[in-house]
Amino acid sequence: MSSCQLCSAATDLMEITVAPQSETVTVCTTCQTGIEGEVSDAPHWRCLSDAIWSTEPAVQVTAYRLLNRLSSEVWARDILDIAYLEPETLAWAEAGMSEDDAVVHRDSNGVILSTGDSVVLIKDLPVKGAGFTAKRGTAVRNISLVSDNETHIEGRVEGQRIVILTQFVKKS
Description:
The protein is an alpha+beta fold. The chain has helices spanning 29-36, 48-51, 57-69, 74-82, 87-95, and strands at residues 14-17, 24-27, 119-121, 125-127, 132-134, 139-140, 144-145, 152-157, 160-165, 169-171. The chain folds into 2 domains: 14-101, no CATH class; 119-171, Roll (SH3 type barrels), CATH 2.30.30. It is 25% helix and 21% strand. β8 and β9 (160-165) form a beta hairpin. α3 (57-69) packs across α5 (87-95). The model has no long low-confidence stretch (mean pLDDT 88).
């Protein structure tokens, strides 16, 4: 008897090709809906903590892609932090991820930010743990983007490297 290779459900099974290669995974309709559309029902996806360790590369690739789409969930980021994929399996997983899955950082006006940009603070921000307030109008040059969180950037203010919320900056 066959079952879903991601969640182990035994009903409503179908095979899906894992692009860009021709290998397939057997999944249930719930998993298929998440793979092809919007990932919802986060509790269902806890099954990915086991699927990422499968011996089948196609299952690992599928789990990796879904975990990346769920990276707003702490548990999914934790799994991605400890997961290991062989280099060729990781390349396969990343090759099939769409640009829509990429994290896009935008300032308070909706302008796309890039690594190395300069921004200006639009509000006084108390810096936790550093004991000072970053004043409105302060320029932050050569910012870094936090890869897994579109609302966070990093920059140096008064000699301290701090995390800044993108809603409090505008690109200069």
